[in-house]
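Box 4.2: Ligand-aware structure prediction
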Amino acid sequence: MEKLIINGGKPLAGTVTISGAKNSAVALIPAALLADGPVVIENLPKIQDVDIYFKLLREMGADVLFEDDWMEIDGRAMQSVLMPNGRVKKLRASYYLWGALLAKFGEARVGLPGGCDLGPRPVDLHIKGFEALGARVENQNGVMTIRANKLKGARIYLDLVSVGATINIMLAASKAEGVTIIENAAREPEIVDVATLLNNMGANIKGAGTDIIRIQGVERLRGCRHTIIPDRIEAGTYMIAAAATGGSVTLENVIPKHLESVTAKLREIGAEVIEMDDCILVNGKGTYRAADVKTSPYPGFPTDLQQPITALLTLAKGSSIVTDNIYSARFRHIDELRRMGANIKVEGRSAVIEGGHKLLGAKVVASDLRAGAALVIAGLATQGTTELEGLEHIDRGYENLVGKLQNLGADVQRVSSHRQERHHM
Ligand code: UD1
């Protein structure tokens, strides 16, 4: 087992280059299977979720070449519609195989997805979408079988704004007969990225990035090249870390517009944020004002940064209320922040923070990906030493977190518990 040892108290300083977006990558890879030729995806983040997808595609018989930060995917040789439970359970976004296999073979048999435990994560909207397109869906002992003789375009209203359901319906509808309209669609930049890839493959998708998406089905999709957009959640994490340490960090390879809700919140508490074409500079301060944060679908404040900003707000003077309107139980980082001396209560779907106290180093455990990011930020902001376990969660979604932080001057090391024991001897 490995852990991070963080000796906090050093302001982060310098430049960090942001990787390709995790939540795009995990949708673009299955989307590529729909082409009748090779699709090259560039700017892939080096994270576990991408590795797992690579292995999944190999297991399913696709020809996949994976080098450095690009993958060439050729789904022509693929036969299998059946995905066993093993790897599928390791990542939430395996659910995109439902839409992709359904579009490709008219059938998908895939185990229910895994991923971070954020409380209930239903998939009813995905199923509703597939059924509207003419598929029959059965769930037998956790294996979903989704079948359609012919997928037919339909008008689909999503009761809730869902990133996953919007993308899955786009995938399935891209080769369906006729027109599909998704109403109340999610507007996240990752959805636009997937639509861009599919359109470059020859699909006919209009309106991605708005709440009405129109998909005119086409018979064939072809190979192409695509570069993934920057990861706005990784970027937001470094912005918050810069602020929490009172540092000065330039983020390169970002789309500032994708980060407006984070920029606005950091400015509200008193940090300086300067936006340039494809860079953002964050200048942290010694003290901050409290502020309330409510998560909502894009362009609102992202739930994926709720946990990181909670860590920052423990440093802001006064009461802050952080409400997660997307995942009501995404609060497993709170107990750990309390171990570090934070004064936080959870009330329903809100965390009430009495901030402005110094945090202390402690032994803490990351329960999920963004909880891990929150605890790293808290650890960087303390004067003491923090030991963080649960790194497998962080590895799922942050490329080279330790290296990037070290480049910014942080005193962070990844050690095996074994080495640690010797260290103490
Ligand atoms: C995606 C992101 C995740 C992010 C989340 C919200 C990926 C791989 N993951 O997850 O990082 O935290 O968006 O921005 O892109 N819901 C239902 N029924 C459904 C589907 C969703 O009730 O069938 C609910 C969810 O429980 C949640 C809300 O809708 O409360 C939004 O979820 P959704 O946008 O679907 O999240 P994911 O796509 O799973």
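In the box above, the bound molecule is uridine-diphosphate-N-acetylglucosamine. The chain has a mean pLDDT of 93.
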